[in-house]
Specification:
Shape: elongated
Helix content: 25-40%
CATH architecture of the largest domain: 3-Layer(aba) Sandwich
Largest sheet: 10 strands, mixed
Structural class: alpha/beta
Number of domains: 3
Number of strands: 22
Radius of gyration: 25 Å
CATH class of the largest domain: Alpha Beta
Distance between the termini: 87 Å
Number of helices: 11
């Protein structure tokens, strides 16, 4: 061992895997950064003086006598308003050819806000997508994932949500993005003229997978700065959390940890919760809202990643393609926002809960009618009308291509119900029918 200034150097590595190196070292702290032959690494385990480092770029070509230098600090991000409009990599270094943003050096991955300092979410976030605003209203300070198959246009939906939401700052944490996806986000935000309020941390599919472990912490550290210090409403987009979890699995498996369900590390729940719990509504008015994509393996919602995510978050938004119309929708049956009851009919129009429930009940009756039809049973007149309603409801309201104001969504829902049903078939309150019904009574 040798010491230069405040750095400590070692040249005796005892164990090397594809992602980690291990050695004996003193005075090292957990999550401390190091350089292994010039490659950035981070402490992931300390046991009886044995230190294990994950090497972000991989260990290929590293020998047992490689030089290991401990840097004395965990990963940091320089936070300031200079972050706005910048695209950076997983280390917070610029991807846009400009000088690095300068600010206050802040360690990433700190604790979430103390529960006693949190306020109850109270403000709806409107996106223009009826499957969200009408059926699963989001609130500032909420944490919620999109569950989607890999071939679903979730990046398009995420960008739409970001552009339509009333947010002061948008923070994008992209993990394993293809270059096309990266360019799509960049061009979409640039065309919309919102780069001035965007902060982006990007790891592409060409970058080392283990670097993805830094991206959410970088994004959330930036979000906390704007929410806490400047009382801003911050929207954080994280995509794809399945690739983040896969990177966790790579490191844990190569450290010879016993895997849990679906080859994921046993710490997966706490690893995800540590990130999702950064969502907060602050009494000062600042907030952090987290919307994260979790791609599904062949639609398996019971896999460890979505399963753990569903327990931590306040619901989920499930993207699927409707077989009848070909439209991509936010599924009314498998989606849920557990906080929507705090605002629907209170911060939105009085009829919102009633017409929402009526539409979903009629949509469910259409699903029952379809089962009857597929099994060769005769359909009643009501069944036929339910099927026609479901197609119109999907095309004109549920489709992610349709973007409307909340007022227009509610009016459209009343119109669709009135087109196919009589008031007594809907279960709607008579006083609301008298006020909002769009057809013959």
């Amino acid at each position: 061992m040798e010491t230069t200034a405040f750095n400590r150097h070692y040249t005796e590595i005892s164990h090397i895997t594809k992602a980690t190196v291990s050695l004996q070292a003193d005075g090292v702290s957990n999550e401390e950064l190091a350089l292994v032959e010039g490659r950035l690494a981070q402490v992931v385990r300390l046991q009886d003086g044995q230190v294990t480092l994950q090497v972000f770029a991989g260990t290929e070509g590293i020998s047992n006598d490689a030089r290991v230098t401990f840097l004395g600090n965990a990963p940091v991000l320089q936070v300031s308003e200079a972050l706005l409009g910048r695209f950076m990599n997983a280390y917070g270094l610029p991807l846009d050819g400009m000088e690095p943003a300068v600010g206050v050096r802040t360690e990433i991955g700190g604790p979430s806000v103390n529960p006693v300092r949190r306020a109850q979410p109270f403000e709806p976030i409107l996106t223009g997508i009826a499957g969200i605003d009408l059926n699963n209203t989001l609130l500032g300070g909420q944490k919620i994932p999109f569950f989607a198959d890999p071939d679903q246009p979730y990046n398009e939906v995420m960008a739409t949500v970001a552009l339509r939401a009333d947010a002061d700052v948008i923070v994008l944490g992209g993990m394993g993005l293809t270059n096309d996806d990266y360019i799509y986000y960049r061009q979409r935000f640039e065309t919309a003229g919102v780069l001035h309020k965007l902060v982006a941390f990007i790891n592409t599919s060409e970058n080392p997978a283990v670097e993805r472990l830094l991206v959410p912490d970088m994004a959330l550290t930036a979000a906390e700065y704007f929410a806490v210090e400047h009382h801003k409403k911050v929207l954080v987009l994280l995509t794809d959390m399945t690739l983040f979890a896969d990177a966790l699995s790579i490191v844990s498996n190569r450290m010879d940890q016993i895997p849990s369900k679906d080859a994921m590390p046993g710490s997966l729940y706490s690893d995800l919760a540590r990130l999702y719990e950064k969502a907060v509504q602050l009494p000062s008015g600042g907030s952090i809202t987290i919307i994260a994509v979790t791609t599904l393996n062949q639609g398996d919602i019971t896999h460890a990643i979505p399963d753990n995510t569903g327990y931590i978050t306040e619901g989920q938004l499930f993207l699927r393609q409707d077989t009848e119309t070909g439209e991509v929708i936010v599924d009314p049956f498998r989606s849920l926002s557990r906080l929507k009851q705090l605002v629907i009919g209170k911060k939105t129009r009085e009829d919102h809960p009633q017409i929402m429930n009526a539409c979903i009940r009629l949509y469910a009756d259409a699903a029952d009618a379809k089962v009857k039809q597929e099994n060769g049973f005769d359909l009643t007149d009501y069944d036929q009308r339910c099927l026609q309603f479901a197609k119109a409801y999907t095309r004109e309201l549920l489709s992610i291509r349709v973007q409307l104001s909340m007022e227009a969504m509610l009016n459209k829902a009343w119109q669709l119900v009135a087109d196919w049903f009589r008031p007594e078939e809907t279960g709607l309150k008579s006083e609301l029918v008298a006020r909002y019904w769009k057809g013959k009574k």
